[in-house]
From TrEMBL:
Family (UniProt): Belongs to the flavoredoxin family.
Protein name (record): Flavin reductase family protein
Flavin reductase like domain span: 9-157
Listed cofactors: FMN
ATP-binding is among the record's keywords: no
PANTHER family in alphabetical order: FLAVOREDOXIN, FLAVOREDOXIN-RELATED-RELATED
Length: 187
């Protein structure tokens, strides 16, 4: 028998996404956002939801651009730090030792050390309640050559991305490959 848990933000797993923005003075900032994911195929889009109280919210509203970095398990400390501090008070790039890189395609920075980066232009802004959802068109994906598979696409096993447990607020890594999508169900 299932037990009712009520209305909660429980979805497993949630990605750990590092959202890069510039503030009004051009200062680069990163924040950790778990409320996000791919939301459209054509054009390719990602949605991230931020509270208005975050430092990144105003930057997104002003610049209409952001990057999304997918950190590796080795970057757990930096990823958590940029989620528990505010860019209003600290320079998160300086504090974490990450190197800001100016995107050539959108008005937003990313961290050079993060293995996969999505560069996004804001298409839609939707007030939902406590959060505002920003839908960004992915204008380019950049990946370190070391995390690419033989087909030239990112290899999740090489990236070793962090995943977030929304129920217990923990970070986890990946498990083994269980089957090939769009094929295993044909058995």
């Amino acid at each position: 028998m299932k037990k009712s848990l009520g209305s909660k933000t429980l979805l497993f797993p949630a990605p750990v996404l590092l959202v890069g923005t510039y503030d009004g003075e051009g200062k680069p900032n990163l924040m950790n956002a778990a409320w996000g994911g791919i939301c459209n195929s054509q054009p390719p889009c990602i949605a991230v939801s931020l509270r208005k109280a975050t430092y990144s919210y105003a930057a997104l509203m002003e610049r209409k651009a952001f990057t999304v970095g997918i950190p590796s398990q080795e970057q757990i400390v930096q990823a958590d730090y940029v989620g528990i501090t505010t860019g209003r008070e600290v320079d998160k790039f300086a504090e974490t030792g990450l190197t800001p890189v100016r995107s050539e395609l959108v008005d937003a920075p990313y961290a050079a050390e993060i293995p996969v980066i999505l560069e996004c232009r804001v298409l839609h802004v939707q007030e939902i309640g406590l959060h505002t959802q920003f839908v960004g068109e992915i204008v380019d994906v950049k990946a370190d050559e070391g995390v690419l598979a033989e087909d030239g696409l990112p290899d999740i096993r090489k990236i070793q991305p962090l995943i977030f447990d929304t129920a217990h607020r923990g970070y986890y890594g990946l498990g083994p490959l269980l089957g090939q999508a769009f094929a295993i169900g044909k058995k």
